[in-house]
């Protein structure tokens, strides 16, 4: 098969994987970024790193583990970059994501909005733990994505949930 | 909020996001990855130029030693300068290796640490630089020979020479003190910010995050999660 043919297959595979797991991207992006314009930029960066890294993905770990790693790494880095960020946006076609902003906050019920607000107030690393936990990932998977021990993940989840409990007591 | 249904609440957020977002994945086919790598390329070029400079300087000082083999003053001075150049080039090679092996599919803590340590490399380079202070005589000997063709050690009287050696000795604790002061914790200080060409606040932020990662990594004593939670 020619190089171009391989590339086409690779992109086809990746498109299918992203399509099946796009919820990961939406939730990670939404948790690390509030501004709709920035969300578009962040999705672009994540997509770029998916495309760029998929060739190296060895399928030894789950594809969702790989997606979480890329999405979280890019989002945390994006979150930490300040004004200089725009200079470095990778060239991507516009409109790779369409976000209907008016539907975001208004249509969210109170509990969802509260949970989202709580998660956005966690520090970057605990936020990653919580996103994965709420997505139903096992402690083992969370530990693999973050490079922590499973017991450490368990303790962190326990502490975050305690914080959450306190948070809602006071609201 | 009912905390036992956290995941259900979270799934409701997912549903909302699914409805309000639409990924146009077909556009991925149009992405030109080569064009997107400019940022990385500029970092790689910067490091490549630094490495080339230090390696050439190291090679030049080795050549200086070889061509002045009959005079131990020159051999020692050239050896010190060559050694320093090679240490600096080794540090730059390490930085280049870190940049080239950035892979966003690495575990989150590993990658974030790597990104932060690339950002803080400038402090390491300054630390290497200050250790040349006690060896300033090597520069003097080399410059005297190259510019004026004179052997500084041979023409200087013993008392002036002794003072220079004493000064070199005194500069060791100064270099040690500066090495310690060139500490990530001082990145917000004006003088260090000046040395860092105004990038002190960014560096400070990077180092703060490195500390956060270290704290986050610590495995605390297991706290048992109640089943009912």
From TrEMBL, chain A:
This is Sigma-70 family RNA polymerase sigma factor. Belongs to the sigma-70 factor family. ECF subfamily. InterPro entries: RNA_pol_sigma-70-like, RNA_pol_sigma-70_dom, RNA_pol_sigma70_r2, RNA_pol_sigma70_r4_t2, RNA_pol_sigma_r2, RNA_pol_sigma_r3/r4-like, WH-like_DNA-bd_sf. Residues 18-83 form the RNA polymerase sigma-70 region domain. It comes from the Bacteria. SUPFAM superfamilies: Sigma2 domain of RNA polymerase sigma factors, Sigma3 and sigma4 domains of RNA polymerase sigma factors. Keywords: Sigma factor, Transcription, Transcription regulation. Residues 114-164 form the RNA polymerase sigma factor 70 region 4 type domain. The keyword Cell cycle does not apply. PANTHER family: RNA POLYMERASE ECF-TYPE SIGMA FACTO, RNA POLYMERASE ECF-TYPE SIGMA FACTOR.
TrEMBL record, chain B:
Keywords: Membrane, Transmembrane, Transmembrane helix. It comes from Rhodohalobacter sulfatireducens. This is Serine/threonine protein kinase. The chain crosses the membrane at residues 43-62, 74-107, 128-155, 161-179. It comes from the Bacteria.
